[in-house]
Automatic annotation (TrEMBL):
One of its GO terms (biological process) is tRNA pseudouridine synthesis. The lineage of its organism: unclassified sequences, metagenomes, ecological metagenomes. Belongs to the tRNA pseudouridine synthase TruA family. This is Unannotated protein. Keywords: Isomerase, tRNA processing.
Amino acid sequence: MATQRTTRRPDPAVPDLRLRLDIGYDGTEFAGWARQPGERTVQAELSTALSAILHVDGQLYAACAGRTDAGVHARGQVAHVDVPFDKWHAVAKKVPFRLRGTLPPDIRVTAVREAEPGFDARYSALSRRYSYTLCDSTTGPDPLARMWAVRHPNTLDVDRMNAAVPQLLGLHDFAAFCKQTDGRTSIRTLLDANWSRNGEIVTLSITADAFCHSMVRSLVGGFLPVGDGRREPEWMGEVLHAGERHNAANVAPAQGLVLEEVVYPPADQFLARQAITRAIRQL
């Protein structure tokens, strides 16, 4: 269980420096990214490790590009952390090595560096790309793949699932495929989605400017009855435009989902991108 500590309050007398961290993790044993009382989370583990390495009183706050749910994995998560300038430069060259030794084996910081001016891991991002992996073998997934490949009992037709994609692309209100959160919009721009097969493994690669809560897993739940023939491809568009969750489109299990990549604009466009991201989306 992650140690709970008070969040650090910046000292106005000591200037802060923003760091960018590229992160991967196996989400199996985590209750998600965000800190939760009494739960083991990626944010808590990372913040605790950084606070100890930099000898900071209180808890540093790591803000991420995509707040993954319990059981969801990441290869390409990005976060930023504001740290005291003097604490960072005292140990900067040693931080990557010390993170490897301090973090548990199911989290790895693959890169840590000083962020360019205006960088914000969440609001500067242009897009996020996720993958979702299924196995439709009658015997189930390889035992070594069971933590990231979700078994589906029926054979899936990737051509049928890909035929459902075009009606979802572009700017839409994805309320039918999101867990609603008070005060937050479900309007998103879906940039790309593609299903592919490699033997018994079926994988979705999906990219959007951002995703609302459970959006990818809900879309997967909608694609499945199309892929196994229970619904026609046009049905996905009907659900989308109805604007209400459908009981045939269940939220797929968390273990198949991986945050693969976060894309950012050139540094001189960070602030302009933040203004767009923070604006209320409208159709």
